[in-house]
Amino acid sequence: xxxxxxxxxxxxxxxxxxxxxxxxxxxxxxxxxxxxxxxxxxxxxxxxxxxxxxxxxxxxxxxxxxxxxxxxxxxxxxxxxxxxxxxxxxxxxxxxxxxxxxxxxxxxxxxx
Length: 112
Hints:
This protein has 5 helices and no strands. By secondary structure, the protein is mainly alpha-helical. The radius of gyration is 16 Å and the shape is globular.
């Protein structure tokens, strides 16, 4: 009953596979955080991309005065606070947009 019908991708591959600058930065992050393969890095980038996309959408909706958007903004900030990516109080959506991949990778248990 609660089983998903289709599995969804948890990461997205780069649109262009052979960009030298991207490959160089990916390899540096792999070494720095001890990742097993690039799929783990792409998964972290995907998670960050979804958080930032959600923050952009909410920022536009909050400006129009949407009450539901205000609740969703608080929920997003609370979730990021529980994950340890942002402080629990005094954060804004601009802080979410300022996050980078290293903030997510530094939360890995292997990195500690």
